[in-house]
Amino acid sequence: MLQSPSCQQRGAALIIGLILIMVGSIGAIAIMRGNHIHDRMASNHHNKVISQMAAEAGASEFLAWIGAQDASSIATWRNSWSEDPDFDLPDTEDEAASTGEHHGAYWISDVQWTYFAPNDPRNQVQVTITGLALVDSQPLAETAIVLTVSAPVAPVPAQPGQPAQPGQPGRLPPAFYSGLLSGGNIIVKGKASFQGSAHANGNVEPTSKANELTDRTVIDDTGTSTTIESRITAKGNNEFRGATPATGRVVSGAPEVEVPSASEYIESARNRPGVIQSCTIPSGDGGGAIYFCNGDVTLAGGSYQNVTILTTGNVTNKGASSLNATGELNMAIIASGNIEFSENNKTEGVYWADGNVIQKGASTLRGSIVTRGNIERGGNFTYIQVDRFSSGLVSGMGGEPAVPGQPAVPGQPAMPTVWREKFG
Predict the structure, then answer these.
(1) Can you say whether residue 240 is alpha, beta or left, with left for phi > 0 and alpha for psi between -120 and 50 degrees?
(2) Total number of domains constituting the chain
């Protein structure tokens, strides 16, 4: 008997409905299983974090313990660490110490002592700390970390610092520290006062019996006052007569002293960069300038400072010069011929000639005179030796440059005896 179409439709709807219910049930079951797996993964991660934190807490406790140990007992590392009465950290799982948070606990599962010799930097401790995550005393997760600690060495005592080292001033050749140095004779036609030394490879010929020789007092860079003996010597006859600080200061038959050639130096320096080719020298502060003149030079009245003059001829000096603010000579005249002072003036500088150095009037000279000829002084003459030279003058005369000082070096504090965690 045939069914009506409406009955067939109701049967199909029933089957489809059952299928949909079955599919929905399967989906719901899958979702529930997925949630359960996710919960388990989250729980495992949480437990792993707890065990990691517990292990790190144990590492901190071990560092605190070992940091309190005396370095002098380092040799006992070769003994069993677990038998050390001062070692009160848990060293078995049964003794695992709770961290007090998140149900974690730790224990020292292994300690390796490496010992070479006292104070050997290779001495170390390597410790394995196991962290646990617990629920009802049952471990759910476990993490082990390895900590390496360098052993202390003997403490390093404090190291004292070094004081600042003073620099060395520029240096000229030794001849310029001789005071008055003549390759010929020293002739003084009047009373002479020497506060410093003089030497002649010929004779010393003063005409007065009232001459005076005194020692000089200098202040060094540290502010210390020093007395330097003055002497008058000659390879030939020394006829100096007058007051001296002590016997034996006036000597005849002294060894000859080498006198450097002004002409040779002029020839080597005349074309150097920066040398001004001029026979006209302006008065005032020369700013460290070096002038070269192929001929004679006349310095008119006025003051000349901070300048070096090179000339192949003669120099007539009618001007004056003085020390700089720090008491150094800063003016030099270097001549192949003669240097002549034609006025009564006060002159302070270095005078170097291959001819004669002549002073025609009463004057005071402070500085250094070096000549291959004679030193001739007329009238009352006062000489004060100065052998401090400015850096500009040393440079202009081809001397050795100054050596700068060294700053103070601070001391080093004592290095304590400590245990240090090693990384890498």
Answers:
(1) beta
(2) 2
Tokens 């270095």 belong to residue: 350
CB 295 within 8 A of CB 312: yes
Sequence-ordered list of residues with C-beta below 8 angstroms from that of 131, at least 6 positions apart, any chain: 50, 51, 52, 53, 54, 55, 56, 57, 58, 104, 105, 106, 142, 143, 144, 145
Structure tokens at 243: 């007051």
Spatial separation of the C-alpha atoms in residues 270 and 202, rounded to whole Å? 31
Rounded to an integer, what distance in angstroms lies between the CA atom of residue 212 and that of residue 204? Answer: 14
141 shares its domain with 280 = no
Tell me, yes or no, whether 422 lies in a domain: yes
Residue 406 lies in a domain: no
pLDDT digits (tens, 9 = 90+) for 344-387: 667 899 999 999 999 877 678 889 999 999 999 876 778 999 98
**b/e sequence 137-152, b meaning 16+ C-beta within 10 Å:** eebbbbbeeebebebb
Instruction: Supply the pLDDT for residue 29.
Output: 73
The span from the CA of 147 to the CA of 54, in Å, is: 14
Give the pairing of strands 225-228 and 216-219: antiparallel
Containing domain of residue 95, as a range?
39-162+415-424
How far apart CA 120 and CA 99 sit, in angstroms, is 35
Same domain, 104 and 251: no
Does one domain contain both 124 and 266? Answer: no
Q: Tell me, what's the pLDDT at 67? A: 74
pLDDT of residue 349: 92
Distance between CA atoms of 364 and 380, rounded to whole angstroms? Answer: 9
Low-confidence spans in the chain with pLDDT less than 50: 1-2, 75, 78, 80, 101, 424
Torsion sign (Cα): 70, 72, 77, 83: negative
Distance of alpha carbon 366 from alpha carbon 389, whole angstroms:
12
| Residue 213, H or E segment | strand 211-214
- Please state, as a whole number, how many other Cβ atoms lie within 10 Å of the Cβ of residue 323: 18
What is the predicted pLDDT for the residue at 49? Answer: 87
Q: Tell me, what's the pLDDT at 417?
A: 55
Q: What's the confidence (pLDDT) of residue 316?
A: 92
**Chain-centre distance for alpha carbon 308:** 33
Is 252 buried (19+), middle (13-18) or exposed (0-12) by CB count in 10 A? middle
Whether 115 is covered by a domain: the verdict is: yes
For residue 185, is it within any domain? yes
> In the numeric block, which tokens belong to residue 366?
């402070």
Tell which phi-psi region holds residue 136, choosing left (phi > 0), alpha (psi between -120 and 50) or beta: left
